[in-house]
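SUBJECT: protein chain
CONTENTS: sequence, structure tokens:
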Amino acid sequence: FREKENDFLRSYEAEKIRFLDVQLKKYMKENADLKDQLNSFGELLSDIDLSKIDVKFTPSNIKDKKDIIIWLSDMHIGAYTTEYSLFDNSYDETIVKDRLNKVFIKVYEESLLLGGFDNVIVCNLGDSLDGYNGKTNRGTELSQNMNNKDQIKTFISSMTEFLSKLVKHIPCNNIKYYAVGESNHGSDFEYAANVSLSYICTSINIEATIFSKSIDYFVLENVTYIVTHGNDNKNMNRGLPLTINDKSENYINDYLTYNNISGKVVFVKGDLHQSAVTYAKRFVYKSVGSLYGSSDWIQANFGFTKACCDYSIVNKNGDRLDGLVILN
């Protein structure tokens, strides 16, 4: 027994040393990555000159209680659809800005028809950035045409231009920007970019909320909108499905119960680059499309999904009319 005990202790000590060595290397790498990200954001913020942004939001006196929500998801700035893809999907900074401009034109057309809005909500549902150091947060290798700094700068400049157009040309009483806290491609890299953007929003009188959790919600009129990317930084084995099923309904019902949410509820997610609306007993389940569209992997496994942006027009009773802007 003493020999067995000694063998066990020697084995335990050896395993403990190996485990500590692995953990130490892991934390050293994470520390180096964090320093790289900090340096990237330091350089980025030094390049941003708020004096060049010549707009300030001023509320209009819109009497009619109609709102528009722009469901902006899966921009994947930096993604590269290679020459080996089945279908062309060229994507760079110019195309990102062109697609956002098409979204703006649709919002402008709707504002002309409706005489403006009470609230204009821009809700970012994640994966705005394609991934840090050419990988998803879980280590999957990605084809990219931008480095980390270029992804951040393109996101900030594109979104600032888009939001400035809304400020200049859309009559409304409020403009608000919401962003989810986690996504499997953008992760904390994207969260920091959204925090940077929120300072610009504040400087031009746009209310900005950057959620810290993978799922959160906001209330508009008498409706609770629960928002998520559909996949998180690391914990979910599988993302939420395109349409509702029993498992995901139970998952969302638990969230409603825990947060004492009742009444009209719309659950909105991105991640799968497709648009769909299905209905559960306690809520509407809405998946939204992608500003980027199809990567090589999506084309090979699911076919060619168009780049698009969902939007919802909501009246004072919370009734929703959904629309879709096709972008390529």
Notes: The CA atoms of residues 31 and 225 lie 36 Å apart. The mean pLDDT is 89. The longest strand covers residues 117-124.
